[in-house]
């Protein structure tokens, strides 16, 4: 018997922050697939519905999806620092909890800011 094939886009990295992101994406997809018993019929309707209701813990904190299926997750602000051994490391400066795609600004206010770009919204 041939196993079903699931096409899932992931970041392919074996270490560092991208590995954690890829693993979280894979875990979320597998949790949703499990929720619908692998049923991807009808344009993946049940799977997409399961994803929209998904909330789960990851190594970097809780992850859920908004109405646009964009991740809401803790964001780690880091800076590169030199360790005592002379090597460069990422040091966590601050953790911003549960950041959404509008950066915590109410959606109507965020959209009123205009096109997002390098200088918009401002980053004081």
Give an overview in words.
The chain is an alpha+beta fold. The protein has one domain. The chain is 31% helix and 27% strand. A four-stranded antiparallel beta sheet has the order 1-2-3-4, covered by helices on one side. A hairpin with a 5-residue loop joins strand 3 and strand 4. The longest helix has 20 residues.
Write down how many β-strands occur, each being a DSSP E stretch of 2 or more residues: 4
**Unreliably modeled segments:** 8-12
- Look at the helices and sheets and give the structural class: alpha+beta
Helix content: 25-40%
Largest sheet geometry:
4 strands, antiparallel
Count of helices?
A: 3
Count of domains: 1
Keywords:
flat, alpha+beta, 4-stranded antiparallel beta sheet, 31% helix, 124 residues
Care to give the gist of this entry?
With 124 residues, this protein is an alpha+beta fold. It has three helices and four strands. It has one domain.
What is the topology?
Layout: H1 16-35, H2 41-52, E1 55-58, E2 61-65, E3 71-82, E4 88-99, H3 107-112
Antiparallel strand pairs: 1-2, 2-3, 3-4
């Amino acid at each position: 018997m041939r196993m079903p094939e699931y096409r899932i886009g992931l970041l392919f990295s074996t270490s560092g922050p991208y590995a954690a992101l890829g693993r979280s994406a894979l875990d979320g997809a597998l949790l949703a697939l499990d929720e619908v018993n692998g049923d991807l019929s009808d344009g993946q309707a049940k799977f997409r519905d399961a994803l929209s209701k998904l909330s789960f813990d990851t190594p970097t904190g809780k992850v859920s999806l908004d109405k646009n299926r964009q991740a809401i997750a803790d964001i780690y602000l880091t800076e590169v620092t030199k360790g005592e051994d002379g090597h460069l490391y990422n040091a966590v400066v601050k953790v911003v909890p549960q950041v959404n795609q509008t950066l915590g600004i109410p959606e109507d206010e965020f959209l009123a800011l205009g096109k997002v770009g390098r200088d918009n919204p401002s980053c004081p």
